[in-house]
Amino acid sequence: QVQLVESGGGLVQVGGSLRLSCQASGGTSQIRAMGWYRQAPGKEREFVASFSWSADFPYYVDFARERFDLSRDVAKNSVTLQMNGLIPEDTAVYFCNAKVGDNRIDYWGQGTQVIVSS
């Protein structure tokens, strides 16, 4: 079983930056990709960014492409999401995600809160 532990959320003013980190443990040899999703109050969980272990570059949803940067450390089974130019619409609980095994089963972290205040 893969366990994911997130860190780095918090309260930030508009235009500020935050860095979210996610560390995987247990069964990590089966990880195929890691990334982030988010869920704002009253909304469904949505994809933010991911990095396949076999890819050279991460993949972003449109709203994240210009302001967020996802990096990975395959050896350490971790990913880091650097978020810049934050806006109130970025307020959400951010969840780390891992795709595990050939069937790419989803594993989730417990979530970390990001609040962007104006």
Describe it.
The chain is built from 1 helix and 11 strands, in the order E-E-E-E-E-E-H-E-E-E-E-E. It is mainly β. The strands form 2 sheets. Strands 2, 4, 5, 6, 9, 10 and 11 form a 7-stranded mixed β-sheet that branches. The relative contact order is 0.32. The mean pLDDT is 96.
Summarize the structure.
This protein is mainly beta and 118 residues long. It is 3% helix and 56% strand.
How does the SSE layout of this entry go?
Layout: E1 3-7, E2 10-13, E3 18-25, E4 31-39, E5 46-52, E6 59-60, H1 62-65, E7 68-73, E8 78-83, E9 92-100, E10 105-108, E11 112-117
Parallel strand pairs: 2-11
Antiparallel strand pairs: 1-3, 3-8, 4-5, 4-9, 5-6, 7-8, 9-10, 9-11
Key phrases:
single chain, 118 residues, mainly beta, 7-stranded mixed sheet, 4-stranded antiparallel sheet, 1 helix, 3% helix, 56% strand
Query: What is the N-to-C order of secondary-structure elements (H for helix, E for strand)?
Result: EEEEEEHEEEEE
The biggest beta sheet reads: 7 strands, mixed
Low-confidence regions: none
Q: What's the N-to-C terminus distance?
A: 40 Å
Q: What is the helix fraction of residues, given as a range?
A: under 10%
Structural category: mainly beta
- What is the number of helical segments per DSSP (H or I, 4+ residues)? 1
Principal-axis shape: globular
- Using only C-alpha atoms, the radius of gyration works out to 14 Å
- The number of distinct β-strands equals 11
Content of β-strand: over 45%
Q: Please, what is the average pLDDT?
A: 96
